[in-house]
Amino acid sequence: MSYPSLDTSRAAAAVAHVRNLARGQRIDPSWRVTVHFHPDRLVDDMTILRAMATDGRYRSQFETGTSNGGLSCHTGGDRWRWESRLFGGAYDDAPPAARPVYGSLNHRHRPAGGSPRFGSAHLRLNVATLARTTFCYPDSVFEPVEVGTADRCALADLADADDKEPLDDYVEAHVHGGVVLARDVEALVLDPCFRDTEVEADAHLLGVPVQWHHGFRARIDDIAAHPGYRGPDIVVAAALIAREGILDARIIGAAVREGLFDEQSLKRVWHCTARFGHPDIRP
Fold this sequence. Notes:
The chain is of the alpha+beta class. About 30% of the residues lie in helices and about 20% in strands. The termini are far apart.
């Protein structure tokens, strides 16, 4: 299998720029970067897992034009501008495939990964990728000044001391030089709602170990008890797509494919499910 030729000089320049601004100590080598996504979504009329298996790598939002966070991945857009500032202009004229892949530093060893707000599944990257990963806190949408690299990082302490709500308390990670499945991935970790489904079958096409976390299931009553979290309209959407009063990643994904609500609304339904859900809930 062949992979796109990536400009490693850009990656090296970006990491060096961040290292010059970073402070702190070397991170714990047991920490891992997790790259989150929804495993039942489509990319170019193909399931994302099949697309990954075909490509042999994970593609960034600059390539796919999709995102589970903000989407401004075009020249001059917010994401482009944030990257220009964070990485000293290393990617200003770079092709999409050369740009970094976003994830989070799972310094708390959470089974569902470092930032489940961005997806129920994640790729857990191996220790070798840490050397070419940069970090910031908080999320780059806030244009942070606190940055880090694997050998100079104080961001975990900052995140742990901050009083952010559970879906927003992650340390953002940027993997430079691409994420190639066979080279960089320890495991694909899925929500158990996808057991015995097409998602599980597709997962085994990636050629990496498939593991499961505790899962997120939420009662609509628990979501409705917090209308201010993502808005009353999101509670209404959640109630309409729930099955027997229950929501999980598989149910929300089916609603996305059926076009029952716009994807931004259903993204917020997922936020509610991840925030208020528990693995022991049953219909």
